[in-house]
Specification:
- It is built from eleven helices and 17 strands.
- It is α+β, with helices and mostly antiparallel strands.
- It folds into two domains: 227 residues; 264 residues, no CATH class.
- Strands 3-2-1-10-9-8-7-6-5-4 form a ten-stranded antiparallel β-sheet, with helices on one face. It has a three-stranded mixed β-sheet with strand order 11-13-12. A two-stranded antiparallel sheet has the order 14-15.
- The longest helix is centred in the first third of the chain and has 24 residues.
- It starts with a helix and ends in a 17-residue tail after the last strand.
């Protein structure tokens, strides 16, 4: 009996010993294939172009927006967000790494960057990773493969295949550090090199830790994208980060998704060693009629308009508000909705109402004089035209009720401050009393408008917003304007919420809200916004709805078209890669009652181009295509530097 037990046990011990020894001898990386001369030459070109890109970045001070959502598994919805963090910074790589954070309007800088390495440490704190020591270039490495040693002396390259990313043909290589090359933060993953000039246009993977142990303790997995924003210039535009299981927390089931967006590459460079920035803000032009004199009321209104123009110009200068594109999204879509509300309510504004897009993902809106500002994140999440109209109606009410911006900004000198202090220096939010009054007036406007029979559709949005608002606090914390939620978490437009049916996850015709990045894209070069030319698919199950959630990124890349670049170089799928105006397509009229694929919200009465050309990801670069899958094109994403 003992003998029979002893032999298997001895055999097991020997087997385990052999297995352990074998595991120790097992190579860390997969065996690579020798490159052909043509492949090796392309890799060398990519190494050289990476150095050129780093020098180009050092001449720029882009804005970097990072939005992070912690997630947990859910039986019905697969996963749901449980917490979030939001950060916005203007980064200057001219002196290594230096960031100028956009401080919140509150004097207390809780949760925001501080110091020269603020973007790194800020994200580290936000992700709960203070207990680890990271490479100081961790954040930059999600923009660059390896700024300190990307070459064939430090890395092994293995050819995989050729692949089209949109209309750009690429050669795909697997990359890992050489075994004898030590150092924390070496890239390990896959790269895509375009075949014309040898630029790396995408890289996907992670970074290696200080030892052979699991690198996920130190780095997250990410997918980084670049675009051809100007002739011969490819620049980082977005990074998506995802970890379904975290090893840095006691809750192993806690996951993470994040997007980082880059824009403002053509912004005027600030004076790096100065506290102030020389900003030229044009005075408002006197647009009075031919009458010889100006009365007191008219003078007061003109003074408010001057303050409005100064503030808007300053926000555009700081990269926070999109420049206005004549005939673009702001006029075709938002402007038409304004008309749909103003006309039936007989609102006689002395000056024209304008709409502009605030380039942040936070859910917020406000007014500056006769200009309505709505954030990109809010517009992306709104599912249909009645929901958009409800936001516009409340801002119109603010204007009609005289809730205007502080007129001290009519003096230009009050706006000569560094970009990063914009949130503290400009107050554009309304008081709770003003918001409550405007909400009541907005309901009157909606009841008198063409949207009166569709208000329950809009109410679903506020119901979903209130439901997710208690966990997505950073998303619902405005930076410049007003939140759609009261301090207690209920919507200002609660009357609309009460009109809506209960949210039913199994009802696929019910679409309360969208994932982030559903409608608009920002040109990373000139900051203009355009509609996505993306096909929208009807959800097949409750998991496809993803309200207010961060999703992966996928671009159909295009080369910069010099011939068609005037006046605004933007791509239909990827900002700054196609002719101007191609992305100005307003969406089609929504119909939330149909189970078919939802269409983008287009205001009734607006003239809508049939389509904007996009590029086919497989055939040659000249072959046009019409569709992109919406979840793929979630505009630039977010990394988590560590």
């Amino acid at each position: 009996m003992t003998f029979r037990k002893t032999i298997p046990l001895t055999f097991l011990i020997l087997a385990l010993g052999t297995t352990c020894a074998s595991a120790k001898r097992q190579p860390k990386y997969q065996q690579s294939r020798t490159l052909t001369p043509e492949q090796a030459a392309l890799v060398e070109r990519a190494v050289g172009r990476e150095k050129v890109l780093i020098k180009a970045i050092q001449q720029r001070t882009p804005l970097v927006e990072t939005y992070i959502q912690d997630t947990r598994p859910d039986v019905k919805l697969y996963e749901v967000p449980v917490d979030d963090q939001y950060m916005l910074s203007r980064v200057d790589f001219g002196k290594g790494f230096f960031d100028k954070e956009y401080s919140p309007r509150s004097e207390a800088k809780k949760g925001w960057f501080k110091g020269s390495f603020g973007a790194i440490t800020g994200l580290t704190r936000a992700l709960g990773l203070e207990k680890f020591t990271y490479s100081p270039t961790g954040f930059m490495q999600m923009m660059f493969i390896d700024p300190n040693g990307f070459d064939q002396q430090h890395y092994v390259f293995s050819f995989v295949r050729r692949e089209f990313l949109g209309s750009v043909r690429t050669w795909v290589f697997d990359v890992h550090p050489k075994v004898d090359v030590r150092g924390m933060g070496r890239f390990y993953g896959r790269i895509w090199i375009e075949d014309q000039d040898g630029n790396v246009v995408r890289f996907n993977g992670t970074y290696t830790g200080p030892t052979s142990e699991d690198s996920s303790k130190y780095y997250f997995h990410f997918d980084s994208w670049r675009m051809n924003v100007q002739p011969g210039i490819w620049l980082p535009v977005a990074v998506y980060v995802e970890e379904t299981h975290r090893v840095d927390t006691e809750q192993k089931s806690l996951g993470l998704k994040a997007q980082t967006h880059f824009w403002g590459y053509s912004l005027k460079l600030p004076t790096r060693d100065s506290e102030n920035v020389s900003v030229k803000v044009d005075d408002a032009v006197d647009q009075s009629d031919d009458s010889g004199d100006v009365g007191p009321l008219q003078a007061s209104r003109m003074w408010i308009t001057q303050a409005e123009d100064n503030v808007i110009d300053r926000l555009v200068e700081a990269g926070l508000v999109a420049p206005l594109t004549p005939g673009g999204y702001e006029e075709k879509v938002l402007g038409q909705i304004v008309i749909n509300l103003v006309v039936p309510n007989n609102l006689a504004f002395t000056d024209q109402i304008h709409c502009r897009v605030l380039l942040t993902d936070t859910i917020e809106a406000t007014t500056v004089g006769n200009t309505i500002l709505v954030s990109k994140g809010l517009l992306d999440s709104l599912p249909n035209e009645p929901a958009i109209a409800s936001v516009i109606a409340m801002e119109l009410a603010h204007i009609a009720l005289g809730h205007h911006i502080d007129t001290r900004y009519a003096f230009n000198d009050r706006l000569l401050f560094p970009d990063e202090t914009t949130f503290q220096r400009i107050d554009m939010y309304h008081s709770d009393v003003d918001n409550a009054t405007a909400a009541k007036k907005a309901m009157e406007y909606l009841e008198n408008s063409m949207y009166k029979d569709q208000l329950p559709m809009a109410g679903l949005y506020y119901e979903q917003l209130a439901d997710r608002g208690h966990v997505l606090k950073s998303l619902n914390t405005p930076k410049l304007g007003d939140s759609l939620l009261k301090p207690d978490g209920t919507p200002w437009m609660a009357d609309l919420e009460h009109m809506a049916p209960k949210i039913n996850w199994d009802d696929l015709t019910q679409r309360p809200t969208n994932p982030l990045g559903s409608w608009l894209k920002t040109d990373p070069w000139d900051d203009k916004v355009h509609m996505l030319n993306a096909k929208l698919y009807a959800p097949m199950n409750a998991r496809d709805k993803m309200p207010f959630e961060v999703t992966p990124i996928f671009y159909k890349l295009q080369r910069y078209d010099v011939a068609n670049a005037e006046p605004a170089p933007t791509a239909p799928t990827t900002p700054a890669a196609a002719p101007a105006g191609n992305g100005d397509q307003p969406a089609a009229t929504p119909d939330n009652s149909q189970p078919a694929a939802p269409t983008a919200p287009q205001p009734t009465g607006a003239n809508t181009p049939a389509n904007a050309p996009a590029q086919d990801p497989q055939p040659p670069a000249t072959s046009p295509a019409q569709n992109q899958q919406q979840p793929q094109q979630q505009q630039p994403a977010a990394p988590n530097p560590q």
